Amino acid sequence: MKKIQTSQQISRINDVLYYIHKDISNELSAKELANIAAYSEQHFHRLFKAVVGEPVHHYIRRIRMEFAANQLTFDAKSTVLDIANKSGFTSVSSFSRAFKSMFDMSPGHWRNSEHYDNEKPFLADKEIAECYQRLNKMEIPQCKLIDLPKRHVAYVRHQGYGRSITNAWHILKVWAKNQERDFSQQFGLHHSNPAWVELENCRYVACLVIDFPIQCRGIVNSMTIPGGLHAVFKLQGKYGELLPQLSNILEHWLPTSGYKMLSTPAYVHYHKNHFLTENEQFELDFCLPISIFN
User: Fold this and answer.
1) What angle do CA 115, 190, 5 make, to 5 degrees?
2) Using CA atoms in the order 135, 67, 14, 90, what is the torsion angle rounded to 10 degrees?
3) Closest-CA residue to 169 (of 268, 239, 274, 261)
4) What is the rounded CA–CA span in Å between residue 291 and residue 91?
5) What are the pLDDT digits (tens) for 236-281?
6) Which domains, ranges and CATH numbers included, belong to the chain?
7) CA distances from 86 to 103, 123, 125, 193 (A)
8) What is the CA radius of gyration of the chain?
9) Measured in Å, how far apart are the chain's first and last C-alpha atoms?
């Protein structure tokens, strides 16, 4: 029988995930992460795999490679060594081996090939694929460059980009009602790029702005969404149309914008949340963390 994890165990692993995603270029040793979780290293390894679904070193390597794939595609000015260092590697050779083991090609081949124009994982979803064919060539909305504030949020993590995200929002909604919290300021963190990560493996975080700390953490935890310079795009549509619009921005706007994408996650600020509306319509701001090339 599969052992059910307690809310305290989930909360501690959430603390570790938050630390990992704050800066993936850190060393991120298992001993350090076990200390953050306040477990022995041996117990931490077992618990992390039970909660997250994969060993901690696999998880770290995978998110580093996903970040590197983004940088190689959208940041033509940084060298492979620069990207390797930002991805937590000290040498190009070790970075290249890790990258090839995941994507079946070298970083240089990935950067110079036309892989991005080939079949993207999210196109396996027929509904999204139809939207992509219709929206891929649409004009990208004018963006605003805004220095956004950091935001303190309650959150629920979710694996998978699909309608199942609704479950995370329902948990937050019930929690907010029980805690008498304002439910109006909703954000969604997109940790993964579904152009090369299978939809069921993409990592999403449903977030709700809070004005005072959480007293009892569990499945609902708290963190801070980083502030800073963001390119902000106002988007609207219905379920199935968001991922094609985000892909269009990353594929066509970012490479020619003169900016580079940072390692902190992109997120959406919902004005109308398609996971909570009956007609599955959304109105939102897509906030892409960027900086100017040095």
Assistant:
1) 115
2) 180
3) 274
4) 24
5) 999 999 999 998 899 889 988 989 888 888 999 999 999 999 999 9
6) 7-115 (1.10.10.60), 144-292 (3.20.80.10)
7) 18, 29, 32, 17
8) 19
9) 54
